[in-house]
Give the backbone structure.
Amino acid sequence: QVQLVESGGGLVQPGGSLRLSCRAPGFTSKRCGMDWYRQAAGKQREWVSSISTNGFTTSSDSVKGRFTISRDSPKDTVYLEMNNLEPEDTAMYSCNPSGGPLCGGYWGQGTQVTVSS
């Protein structure tokens, strides 16, 4: 298994911004995309946003227009820029390489985002 590193979470006031990072060694050379998920306390895991190997992006309706996913392939890193944060965005955020047979086997601890005044 390969450890990926999620970072950038923290406590922010409503309307604020955060940028999450996910570094997954080797995921670019394995031709993987990347998905961001989140899980709030007591709720099911929710898909947030994805980016493919060629940069195509998709996002859930709940974050569309506020969150932007991007990738820096040479650094094997994907970012999630989160703007206009709402208390409902409070959750543990995690990333997961996807899209190909070599994209499994990654694990990480996630990064906590708390939106509160």
The CA atoms of residues 5 and 55 lie 21 Å apart. The mean pLDDT is 95. The chain is about 0% helix and 50% strand. The longest strand covers residues 91-98.
